[in-house]
Design a protein that fits this description.
By secondary structure, this protein is mainly α. The protein is built from 4 helices and no strands. The longest helix is centred in the middle third of the chain and has 28 residues.
């Protein structure tokens, strides 16, 4: 593949100043280098996010059992309140 086939046109909008500042600072020698680094960072971020989501789905966190000051578990109190709403006292 020649370089022309790999070329794309990018409209930077308000990001143009950022790119120009990074080039002037010497952090990157060319806009090609900057965009390649940005895409690699995006790929790492997406891979990390996908891995995190997969781990979360595979091993969901266990909800702690919350207790009231009297020691009753919160879900038991809520269940009682829910059941009592159906009754006429």
């Amino acid at each position: 593949m020649d370089q022309q086939e790999d070329s794309i046109l990018v409209h930077l909008g308000n990001q143009r100043e950022y790119v120009e500042n990074r080039l002037r600072s010497g952090a990157y020698t060319s806009s090609d280098e900057l965009f390649q680094a940005a895409l690699e960072a995006l790929q790492r971020e997406e891979a990390t996010t996908s891995e995190w989501i997969h781990d979360l789905v595979s091993n969901p966190p266990v909800s702690p059992k919350l207790r009231t000051s009297t020691g009753e578990e919160i879900h038991e109190v809520r269940a009682f309140r829910f059941r009592s709403q159906d009754r006429d006292f």
